[in-house]
Design a protein that fits this description.
Helix content: 25-40%
Order of helices and strands: HEEHHEH
Number of strands: 3
CATH superfamily: BolA-like
Distance between the termini: 32 Å
CATH class: Alpha Beta
Radius of gyration: 14 Å
Length: about 100
């Protein structure tokens, strides 16, 4: 949980979110048990107001540049303003893994 905690701490510090979920989804992929390589982040912050989706993602990527240059293989981002979050209250579920040796029926 080292990388997961680093992600959480950096985003909390930089964006002061109203809501933050950092979910390690590595177990859904073809990686060794205990891996920290695939994450989903749901973050609600006023910092996203008046920013396009690409700008929001670039901001997160800049904050997490060190982690992204290291062992993170995949990072699913759901970046919302408080108003957007109030309207939905949820982020979409991640799709099932189809690569890395996964067998599909």
């Amino acid at each position: 949980m080292v990388i997961e905690n680093d992600i959480r701490n950096k985003l909390q510090s930089a964006l002061q979110p109203e809501h933050l979920e950092v979910i390690n989804e590595s177990n859904n992929h073809s990686v060794p048990p205990g891996s920290e390589s695939h994450f989903k982040v749901v973050i609600v912050s006023n910092e996203f107001s008046n920013k396009q989706l690409v700008a929001r993602h670039r901001l997160i990527n800049k904050i997490l540049a060190e982690e992204l240059a290291g062992s993170i293989h995949a990072l699913a981002l759901h970046t919302l303003t408080p108003e957007e979050w109030a309207a939905t209250g949820t982020a979409p579920a991640s799709p099932p893994c189809m690569g890395g040796g996964k067998v599909t029926g």
